[in-house]
Design a protein that fits this description.
By secondary structure, this protein is mostly helical. It has 2 domains: 69 residues, Winged helix-like DNA-binding domain superfamily/Winged helix DNA-binding domain (Arc Repressor Mutant, subunit A, Orthogonal Bundle); 143 residues, GntR ligand-binding domain-like (Four Helix Bundle (Hemerythrin (Met), subunit A), Up-down Bundle). A two-stranded antiparallel sheet has the order 1-2. Helix 6 runs antiparallel to helix 7. The chain is elongated.
């Protein structure tokens, strides 16, 4: 099987993983419509896979709410209302399949709710190890802005550390929601905005958390989100101009 698709969470899991990626992206991207019954025989031939591999892949997609099976009807795509939209793979596939970038706007709203509140809590609850972890992420971010390192990985590391600093297990679990979307957003922004250096805005958040100033931390996180939206709009404009 050779799909020419971007590798994701399942990309390194052999044929089974490639099939999950391919069909997941097709369904979420609308190439296979809600309510449509899958032609199992045709998919086996197109993807050059066995019935066993296809069944295993469909079980994964069923667990994500994308497909179901009924006697006489076969395997079909479920309505979007049944999809597990907070699943990390689903988040990636939403971004991949929505060219209007509505998903990025939805992500920005979620971040606007979660991150200022998380920064506020982190300023109250953080310990020395939390500060050290954020400082390390910030150093990586600064180096990446100068061309030494991966900017996306550094950004994800900082936001992961921010959530961890709340010492709230449920907020920490939100990283699976934010990380896939942040990776998609960052891959669009970094490189498209030539003079973009996210380090100062992130440093302002860290400084406030280090000083245990919860109000300033929340304000800095909101300012960081505002910059993120500004950079995203610039990247979109660049992409439109280059089209």
């Amino acid at each position: 099987m050779n799909t020419n698709r971007q590798a994701g969470s399942y990309g390194g899991r052999g044929i089974h993983g490639e099939v999950v990626e391919e069909l997941g992206q097709r369904i979420v991207g609308g190439q296979i419509a809600e309510g449509e019954t899958l032609d199992i025989v045709a998919l086996e031939a197109e993807l050059d896979i066995s019935r066993t591999v296809l069944r295993e892949s469909l079980r994964v997609l069923k667990a994500k709410g994308l497909v179901d099976a009924r006697q006489k009807r076969g395997t079909f795509v479920q309505p979007r209302s049944e999809w597990r939209l907070l699943d990390p793979d689903m988040i990636r596939w939403q971004f991949h399949g929505r060219e209007d970038s509505q998903f990025l706007d939805d992500l920005a709203e979620v971040r606007g709710i979660i991150e200022p509140a998380s920064a506020r809590l982190a300023a109250i609850r953080r310990d020395d190890q939390d500060i050290a972890t954020m400082e390390q992420a910030l150093e990586r971010m600064s180096a990446a802005a100068k061309g030494d390192g991966d900017a996306v990985d550094a950004d994800l590391a900082f936001h992961r550390a921010l959530l961890a600093s709340t010492h709230n297990e449920l907020l920490l679990r939100m990283e699976v929601v934010l990380e896939a979307g942040l990776a998609a957003r960052d891959s669009l922004v970094h490189g498209a905005v030539a003079d973009d250096d996210p380090t100062p805005a992130h440093a302002a958040v860290l400084d406030a958390i280090r000083d245990r100033d919860s109000d300033r931390a929340a304000h800095a996180a909101s300012a960081l989100l505002a910059k993120s939206l500004f950079d995203l709009d610039r990247a979109r404009s660049t992409a439109t101009d280059d089209a």
